[in-house]
Amino acid sequence: MGLIFNGKEIWEGNSSGEVLYQIPSGYDGFFLSTNLDVPDISKFKSISGSNVLTLSKSIADCDNGILVYLSNQVARMSTVGDHYKVTYVPNPPVSPQKLIIKKDSPSASMTFGWYVGAEGNNMLTSTGNVSVSGNKMKVTTDSESGMYEYVDNKYIFWVITSIISY
Fold first, then answer.
1. 20 and 164 in contact (C-beta within 8 Å)?
2. Is the pLDDT of residue 3 over 50?
3. Distance (Å, rounded) from C-alpha 154 to C-alpha 114?
4. What totals of helices (H) and strands (E) does the chain contain, helices first?
């Protein structure tokens, strides 16, 4: 049995809801890199230009709201040296991995750690925020535009794996 929310069943990792933003074929997820010159990282597509996505329909046209699923991994690119690109499960982990954007409260937040394992020997995190108005979904991280934190000469991106209505 899946998760029950507002009297409707929401299946973990799957939904009968409508896809509101199509992830490009061949990718497991995407991140908004705004005006940064960041390439795709592994199976995560880099989408440049803005921190606002246009969804295929308005939140008002959804039964209850929008579900935004997040990857348990983040994508990181170094800005010095060979500009290496990696993905990893951060410590502390991405939490939660499912954001529920309700019609009557159209925003949600998540947190993600900066480092992998015990790297950096701390538990520093950033907060990612999603808000929806009409068919526009805006993302910020620690009140800055985009889906990233800049730490120790590295961009760390949190990743969306699907956006669906429910």
1. yes
2. no
3. 10
4. 0, 16
- Top-confidence residue, 2 or 35: 35
Give tens-digit pLDDT for 21-56.
999 999 999 999 988 989 999 999 999 989 999 999
Summarised one tens digit per residue, pLDDT across range 131-148 is 999 999 999 999 788 899
Q: What is the rounded CA–CA span in Å between residue 158 and residue 166? A: 23
65 close to 42: Cβ distance less than 8 angstroms:
no
- Pairing state between β 85-88 and 65-78: antiparallel
Question: Is the pTM higher than 0.85?
Answer: yes
Nearest 5°: phi and psi at 61? Answer: -90, 0
Mean pLDDT over each residue of the chain, to the nearest integer: 88
Q: How far apart are CA 159 and CA 69, in angstroms?
A: 9
Give the angle 45-101-61 at the CA atoms, nearest 5°.
Answer: 95
Question: Which residue in 27, 48, 45 sits closest to 37, CA to CA?
Answer: 48
Within 10 angstroms of residue 119's Cβ, the number of other Cβ atoms is: 13
Question: What is d(CA 112, CA 93) in angstroms, rounded to the nearest whole number?
Answer: 6
The angle at the Cα of 127, spanning 11 to 94, to the nearest 5 degrees, equals 45
Please tell me the distance from the alpha carbon of residue 102 to that of residue 63, in angstroms, as a whole number. 10
